[in-house]
Specification:
Layout (H helix, E strand, L loop, with lengths): L3 E4 L6 E3 L2 H8 L2 H10 L3 H8 L4 H11 L4 H9 L5 E4 L3 H10 L3 E6 L3 H7 L4 H4 L4 E3 H4 L6 H11 L6 E5 L2 H9 L3 E4 L3 H8 L1
Parallel strand pairs: 1-4, 1-6, 4-5, 6-7
Antiparallel strand pairs: 2-3
Length: 195
């Protein structure tokens, strides 16, 4: 049994999806998908997860696509509408791990500005012994440096640690450092792999 479990947040503990905001707004899933693929892209959002101020990134994107200014501003002005709550069963699983004597931590790519909105709302985050947030550190997964920073800050050893993420690239990076990476699909799948 591994001593330490390190959790990603979005897609593992918390349900975050920009479609929750944009599908109802556009009234058309395909139009929302086009917008999120071509305008407010994953790469654009990732800049803020990597420490870029939201106001700066928003202004740059509006300068490129002024016709979409309203929809671009919505991304962060109405960020909490992208949150679908906690992933079912995960708070209970984290409590179970802690009751078993295992230590639980967080390692997430998240803007420091939007994480400040999310942090007080979801009880599962209070169960983390400590956490490393990319927007604070200005380095993000799958960069090896953020994993090394987390191991050092938490005072834990790679070979005694499991890292759980829904992104295969992040799981691969953890494995490369000797951490046991698990690709998350569901609470049931994760529990089987942990035990």
């Amino acid at each position: 049994m591994f001593k330490n479990i390190v959790f990603d947040f979005g897609g593992v503990l918390l349900d975050w999806n920009p479609h929750y905001l944009y599908d109802p707004y556009f009234g058309d899933v395909e139009k929302a998908e086009w917008f999120l693929t071509h305008i407010c892209t994953y790469e654009w959002n990732a800049q803020h997860d990597n420490g870029k101020p939201i106001a700066e990134g928003t202004a740059e994107l509006i300068a490129l696509h002024p016709e979409w200014e309203k929809e671009i501003r919505m991304y962060y002005d109405e960020f909490m509408k992208m949150m679908g709550g906690q992933i079912p069963g995960m708070e209970e699983l984290v409590k179970k791990l802690k009751a078993n004597g295992q230590r639980v931590f967080g390692l997430s790519n998240w803007s420091v500005e939007t994480f400040a909105l999310v942090r007080p709302v979801y009880p599962v985050l209070d169960l983390m012994e400590d956490m490393v947030i990319s927007g604070v550190e200005k380095v993000m997964k799958p960069d090896h440096r953020i994993f090394e920073l987390a191991l050092d800050r938490f005072g834990i050893k790679a070979e005694e640690t499991v890292f759980v993420d829904d992104n295969p690239n992040n799981v691969k990076a953890a494995n490369e450092l000797g951490i046991h990476g698990i690709l998350f699909h569901s609470r049931e799948q994760l529990e089987k792999e942990l035990y």
